[in-house]
Amino acid sequence: MITVVGVRFRRAGKVYYFDPKNFDVKRGTHVIVETSRGVEFGEVITGPEQVTDDKVVQPLKSLLRVANEKDEAKQEENREKEREAYKICQNKINKHKLEMNLVDAEFTFDNNKLLFYFTADGRIDFRELVKDLASVFRTRIELRQIGVRDETKILGGIGICGRALCCSCYLSDFAPVSIKMAKDQNLSLNPTKISGACGRLMCCLKNEQDTYEYLNSTLPNIGDRVKATLDNLSGEVQSVNVLRQSVKVVVEIDGEKEVRDYPVAELKFKPKKKHSQRLSDEEYKELKALEDKGGSSRLDDEE
Predict the structure, then answer these.
(1) Are 103 and 155 in contact (CB under 8 A)?
(2) What's the rounded Cα separation, in Å, for the pair 218 and 290?
């Protein structure tokens, strides 16, 4: 077991482990650490705790110090410089007529590197742009192309639920999201209704997937033959309500068909594999494109 603290460098960013040494730190403490990008200013997210060796990437780096007032002031100064750097870079992009969308600018704490995040439809030749930026800022320049999910994570916004976007609030990593999750949760397969602000499948589809998988496993399939234990009637399943755990069954009484609603606990049926919901060719192509473009976060891979 190793004693570590979890440090985060950006809002809702990935948490990295560091050796706390003898520093007295707790959740919310600002610290200065050394990363592969240089000296960085971070926030302690998890206080000193014991973790197994396999959860730590060796060699484990140590905290340099707890941030003091001077460090806090420098961090604020860097934020101001980043806003100015963003404007300058945008002007340079317009000057070179590059088809790229600038998303954010970020200085490392020690100002040894300036990173610009951008999105683009394809590959961009930005060599001349880098030269221009290096002559202005006199430091190492890195332009990093990111996906639309990363762009949304940085910019933030309000989701269709009326709350702040999950990715910009608490999601450290993007979990894989598939069309199957929307089908399991009986959601509309209209791409506009299951897409987030980034235009990709909504991350929140993952939140309740385990619960829906369990509840679906307790229900019969539409079209299955079931038998009601209380009134001793048999019939065919017309529809199911996953959350209420109820089943509508078409039964025959005195030669006439009738639809009755039963709790699943009152039914007997043979469990079968879930039938996959058929999609039209257009629906499949549209939804598959959404799923394929989902991607994963690349913002914090090099700390």
Answers:
(1) yes
(2) 30
Residue type, 8: R
Helix, strand, coil fractions of the chain, as percent rounded to 5: 30, 30, 40
* Per-residue pLDDT tens over the stretch 204-232: 999 889 999 999 999 999 999 999 988 88
Q: What are phi and psi of 236, to 5 degrees?
A: -105, 135
- pTM comes to 0.77
How long a stretch of residues is the chain?
Answer: 303
Residue 62 DSSP symbol = B
Give which of 244, 219, 169 is closest to 11, Cα–Cα.
Answer: 169
CA distance 60 to 19: 6
Nearest to 291 by CA among 195, 156, 171: 195
Residue 294 CB contacts under 8 Å (≥ 6 apart), including other chains: 149, 174, 176, 177, 200, 201
Strand order in the sheet with 267-268: 256-263, 246-253, 234-241, 225-228, 267-268
